[in-house]
């Protein structure tokens, strides 16, 4: 018998063909699918792989093959995981870079950035970063990774839950599911509602608990809460549920300012640890004539009260029902040294006060001039120009982001920018000056025992009323102050025992706010102001970077809101 025929020699062309058709490693294939989208792979293949060595070209799949491979494994799931991974990398890199900048370059806390966030609250990233750097306790190990994981898990499960409840609703609406709906009418009605996917997807907000409990987490919850309430108000207004005959011209978000400023000023005086320190520094630095700086002629070896010593003395005097002022210059024998250390620290400021000064508040706030009206006029002359200069620098710098509008119509753009800066400067100067001046006013017109400590809240309300001047197009700034006030009010309530904190309460608030936001977006997309924000919500649902509103809302920011 003849021996078995030997195997044919391998053909080079066939070997190369088999090598090119050889399948990728499963681990590498899945990693590639969850990292690069088909369109990105096509660009990558065209620019990089086409110039790669032959061995790499043979093993790399063609763009069409890669697209088919991605679709066969579930394009929606791979796209969701890919977006979550990228969100993790972006958030982690952002917070890590911020930590390096704040620690190595600035060598101090980001107070300057918080000032910018105070006047430009639409930059939510700056606001969150500022509060992240303001954490008092040192963050735990891996805090940045936990924050990034929290954001990525929220995004991933928001997409998955939204798709799950959408499919479940579509399945229950079929005729084959009629028996189930008849047996369970309430459950069926809840699961077949058009709002079910939006509310169900909001359960992903529970993953905020992955982030460490910190002021940042509370800030995120308050931010999403205020934005959801804002958009809910827009939806109610557009549907004529409220203001059936149109919103009054005087009504707007500026009405939040009297209450917010009243609460913030009261917390600044009596509960300073529950008050944003950067905001307090901003107020004190722009309070000339009322907050006395150390004179250059004062001997360096003698003590002199600091700015916060003056505020502490005001708090103590209000608790003592504003005692009458006795001038040590006119009656040196009848005046005694104060027993309280707080008043003893401000003695170098009050003892040489003008002899015609009548009230202790006047002796503390403007000791060299007994006329409250003249002091207030001097305050405007000294405080308004620096505030106007500061706002001009900040807003002019950020106006460069809108250079297209400036190029299209430079005269109109400059006029609107100048008007906005002027209105804000008047508002800020008037708010701070009225808050201090109202202390003297109330002592002059009210009995000293009447609302002795609540006068700071009333004074803050008077100062916040200046927001009417800047009522047009400043809803973002007003809502930022509302967020500061809510955070401060919650801390004051916990400190004074008005309520007890709930563990994970900020996570529950965040989840509820996400449900409200999703409901508003589902029912009335135009109520969510801002095309970028609407595109972001659609992207978070897995619907792509698209704006669901065909006609853009124009002129809303210029109206009285």
Automatic annotation (TrEMBL):
It comes from the Eukaryota. Residues 1-21 have a biased composition (Low complexity). The chain crosses the membrane at residues 112-131, 143-162, 248-269, 383-403, 424-446. Keywords: Membrane, Transmembrane, Transmembrane helix. Residues 1-24 are annotated as: Disordered. This is Transmembrane protein 135 N-terminal domain-containing protein.
């Amino acid at each position: 018998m003849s021996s078995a025929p030997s195997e044919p020699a391998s053909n080079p062309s066939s070997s190369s063909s088999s090598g090119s058709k050889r399948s990728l490693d499963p681990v590498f294939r899945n990693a590639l699918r969850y990292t690069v989208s088909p369109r990105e792979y096509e660009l990558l293949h065209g620019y990089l792989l086409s110039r790669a060595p032959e061995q790499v070209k043979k093993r790399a799949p063609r763009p069409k093959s890669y697209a088919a491979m991605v679709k066969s494994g579930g394009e929606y799931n791979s796209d969701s995981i890919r977006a979550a991974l990228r969100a993790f990398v972006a958030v982690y890199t952002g917070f890590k870079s911020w930590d390096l900048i704040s620690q190595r370059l600035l060598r101090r806390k980001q107070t300057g950035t918080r000032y910018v966030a105070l006047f430009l609250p639409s930059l939510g990233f700056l606001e969150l970063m500022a509060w992240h750097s303001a954490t008092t306790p040192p963050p735990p190990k891996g805090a940045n990774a936990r924050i990034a994981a929290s954001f990525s898990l929220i995004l991933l499960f928001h997409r998955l839950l939204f798709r799950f409840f959408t499919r479940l609703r579509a399945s229950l609406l079929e005729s084959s599911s009629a028996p189930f709906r008849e047996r369970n009418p309430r459950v069926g009605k809840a699961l077949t509602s058009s709002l079910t996917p939006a509310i169900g997807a909001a359960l992903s907000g529970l993953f905020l608990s992955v982030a460490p409990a910190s002021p940042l987490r509370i800030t995120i919850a308050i931010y999403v809460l205020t934005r959801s309430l804002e958009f809910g108000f827009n939806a109610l207004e557009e549907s004529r549920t409220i203001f059936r005959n149109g919103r009054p011209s005087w009504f707007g978000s500026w009405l939040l300012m009297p209450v917010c400023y009243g609460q913030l000023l009261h917390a600044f005086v009596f509960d300073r640890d529950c008050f944003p320190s950067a905001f307090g520094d901003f107020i004190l630095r722009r309070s000339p004539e009322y907050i006395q700086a150390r004179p250059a002629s004062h001997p360096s070896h003698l003590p002199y009260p600091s700015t916060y010593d003056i505020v502490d003395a005001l708090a103590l005097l209000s608790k003592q029902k504003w005692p009458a002022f006795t001038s040590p210059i006119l009656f040196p024998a009848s005046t005694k040294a104060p027993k309280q250390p707080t008043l003893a620290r401000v003695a170098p400021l009050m003892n040489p006060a003008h002899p015609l000064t009548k009230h202790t508040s006047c002796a503390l706030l403007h000791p060299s001039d007994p006329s409250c009206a003249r002091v207030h006029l001097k305050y405007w002359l000294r405080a308004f120009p620096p505030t106007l200069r500061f706002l001009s620098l900040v807003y002019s710098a950020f106006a460069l982001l809108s250079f297209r509008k400036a190029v299209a119509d430079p005269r109109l753009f400059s006029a609107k920018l100048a008007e906005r800066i002027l209105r804000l400067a008047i508002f800020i100067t008037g708010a701070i000056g009225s808050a201090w001046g109202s202390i003297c006013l109330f002592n002059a017109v009210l009995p000293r025992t009447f609302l002795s400590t609540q006068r700071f809240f009333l004074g803050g309300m008077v100062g916040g009323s200046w927001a009417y001047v800047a009522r047009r197009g400043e809803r973002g700034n007003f809502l930022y102050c509302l967020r500061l006030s809510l955070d401060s009010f919650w801390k004051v309530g916990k400190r004074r025992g008005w309520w007890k904190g709930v563990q994970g309460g900020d996570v529950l608030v965040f989840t509820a706010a996400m449900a409200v936001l999703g409901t508003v977006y589902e029912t009335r997309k135009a109520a969510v102001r801002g095309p970028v924000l609407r595109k972001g919500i659609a992207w978070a649902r897995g619907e792509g970077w698209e704006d669901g509103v065909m006609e853009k809302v124009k002129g809303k920011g210029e109206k009285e809101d």
